[in-house]
Amino acid sequence: MSTEMRSGKSGLEMGSVLQIFALALVIAALSEWLGPLPIALGVGKVVLLPMIWALLIGLVLGLLRKRLPAPLKLSLQSQHLAAAILSCALFLFIAKLGLLVGGSLPKLAEVGAGLVLQELGNLVGCILLGMPLALLLGIKREAVGATFSIGREPGLAIIGERFGMDSPEGRGVLAEYITGTLIGAIFISLLAGFVSSLNIFHPLALGMGAGVGSGSMTAAAVGAIAAQHPDMADQIATFAAAANLIATTVGTYLTLFISLPLAVQAYRLLEPLLGRKRQAVLVEKTAAEEEAEEVAHAPSLSLAMRLLCWVWVGVMVLIGNRIGHGVPVLDALPGVLIMIVAVLIGDLIYIGTRRILPAVCWISFIAMAMTFPHTPYAAEVAALTGKVNFLAMITPMLTFAGLSLAKDIPAFRRLGWRIVVVSLMANAGVFLAATVIAQFFVHTL
Fold first, then answer.
1. Which one of 111, 206, 382, 407 has the minimum C-beta count within 10 Å?
2. Which residues cross the membrane (predicted)?
């Protein structure tokens, strides 16, 4: 058998493929077994979910690669391979999201106009506050990935498909993801509580602003707001849940078609004004890194290799679903197969239409159609895919992210505190902008 797998214009070493697949499976299973770990931090707490364990374990393996035995030693080529696998594996998450959206479309249609329009705040708020600050701090193209959204899983998928996770934009969105995951809930809780105490905004407007598209951040913000207005706690939670549903469903597509193009355009317009004369944060590769990149680069995956990745990630999801959420493998298997079929069909349409629309759009459309209430067997499809836990879908994605992350640590180190400040400012912008817009409509609800 040949020792090299060909994919597009790039060669994939069979050893690297097997190593990454094996390590990812073990890490994901171990992370689900470890389970969530709550850490109290004064006024709040941080919960290290299995997805974070997976990311951290993969990162540690990459950082210690020179000290580990051969089976655990991650070369730069292996790390780039993990990044390429992550970009296509995220399509399965998009399929899962689309399956959820399809069944929720009638419910979304019943939501008031004000509740829908406040989603515009999620699209522009992060850019308005985050982009200028990023450029003033010397951050360059990473600013696009860090400020076009709050950087949850759909944001990873969108940036990965558009720019690749190896790009500066990919580093930016991953930095935003890590920052938001680790300290985002505490930050948004403190911010929401402070803004609520000012009595400037209606409690329901604050509740809608709390629906930022992240379950943990929404819960933290609602708790802080409800503590200020205990008589309206139930209403605040209701509107926050509806806004969060919009942000995590329709908001994904608005992010793709509106906020990402806006972020790219804002960077082009503002960088000459705010960043051109600023000393740039050095994120370019050193001479040694450039030399390494001559032999280590992100491979282009063929359709056959992408299909193999989707199947293997499906296996990881099934195992994680069993360990972490107690769902038997055979019960969840039909749901995983449906997601793989949706991804494959969407990817083939993407290729067949000469890439007119991003692959994530076609995959989303196919998945949404499968569970739309008027589609035959929609209820059965929804029931089968519903057995695949949402969090079990995310752990494999973050596993590959962790395995690919060490190669970018020099750039992260050079970005340092700057990217954390920018990420938190982007999150604040989403909450504040959505709240301001909701305030104009709150009296009509």
1. 111
2. 12-31, 37-61, 81-100, 120-139, 174-198, 204-227, 239-264, 303-320, 332-350, 356-376, 388-406, 418-442
